[in-house]
């Protein structure tokens, strides 16, 4: 059986979405038929319906293409994964229904995993400058620091978000594409409606904070739960503008 299929079973709630579409045009742009459902084993997530209070944004730290990320999730015994992964082109892939859960936070509190929906954005994430070019980072065990992975093609300058003062240990990040940000917007609006999750922009989502760790309802990043131990997602201006527009 192939890794992906066009068969739509997202949340098993097509009827519910149609009813919401009649009442609220703001979510009509999310076409469930465009979501690509992944052949994802049931033993790789927890098929237990849980109340949802939080939506958490991640990025994959990998190159363009979601196949490798999903294949790795399928092999882990820890049941690591997120319900959704968004490709560079904005295509939305569903591993399992948002009403179920898997481990994706690593915050030492499984209740946070249970009550949150994870979105992975396909991206190299943190970059390292070398010979005037930006490369994906790799960890050097001898130097005990991230170095440029020159085995991979450099990231074009137009796709690099620079942080003069740095963010979570990096000064450059691969930008999230416009298509990815738009796909995330549609999902956030849909889940905000479906699960009654507030979409008010949280200014403190880019730092480790007690609001996220205490289970406060809303939209957060992986950094919100792990601080500098994680670097996803980074505060790209276009992403912030999208999040603020949800209010």
Explained architecture:
With 247 residues, this protein is of the alpha/beta class. Helices cover 24% and strands 23% of the residues. It is built from seven helices and twelve strands. The strands form two sheets. It has a seven-stranded mixed sheet. Strands 9-8-7-11-10 form a five-stranded antiparallel sheet, with no helix packed on it. Helix 4 (178-195) packs parallel to helix 7 (237-245). The radius of gyration is 18 Å and the shape is globular. The protein starts with a strand and ends with a helix.
Distance between the termini: 42 Å
The spatial strand order of the largest sheet comes to: 1-2-5-4-6-3-12
Which H/E pattern describes the elements? EHEEHEEHEEEEEEHHEHH
Question: Structural class from helices and strands?
Answer: alpha/beta
Mean pLDDT: 90
Helicity, as a percent range: 10-25%
User: What is the number of beta strands?
Assistant: 12
Low-confidence stretches: 1-28
Largest β sheet strand count, sense and barrel closure: 7 strands, mixed
**Apparent shape:** globular
Strand content: 15-25%
Radius of gyration over all CA atoms, rounded: 18 Å
Number of helices: 7
